[in-house]
Structures are given as C-alpha cells and as structure tokens.
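Database export, one record per block. Field names are fixed; values are copied verbatim from the stored entry.
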Amino acid sequence: MESFFSLPQKNVLDRHRWPIKQELRLAITTWIERTYLRRRRQRRLGKLAPTEYETINRTALTAA
C-alpha cells in the first residue's frame, strides 16, 4: 500500500502547490484514471494494463 501511495505523491502532490483540496482531489483522481489504470502494466495480469485486461476478459465473456 505504501508503494501505491508514493506514486501519486511523486507524480501529482509534489509537482504543484495545491491551495484548494478539491483541485488536488481532482488531480489525483485524474492521474489514477489516466495513468495508473490505463498505462501501468501489472505482472499479475500478464503484463497488461488493468483496462486492457478488463477489455480482453469482457470480450471473451461476451463471445461465450
């Protein structure tokens, strides 16, 4: 868990000064949705990004 939370801290929190909490919350959510979930490959998913893995499994279930 600590390694996960260090990623948005390095990539979002430490790169800009955030005077309003809502702006920071939106920036972190956007980073998670655009970068972490779409681009970050995971070993447990066969070196696929979570969205790629989900798309492949959804297609396989629909075809069955």
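Remark 1: The CA atoms of residues 58 and 64 lie 10 Å apart.
Remark 2: The radius of gyration is 15 Å.
End of record.
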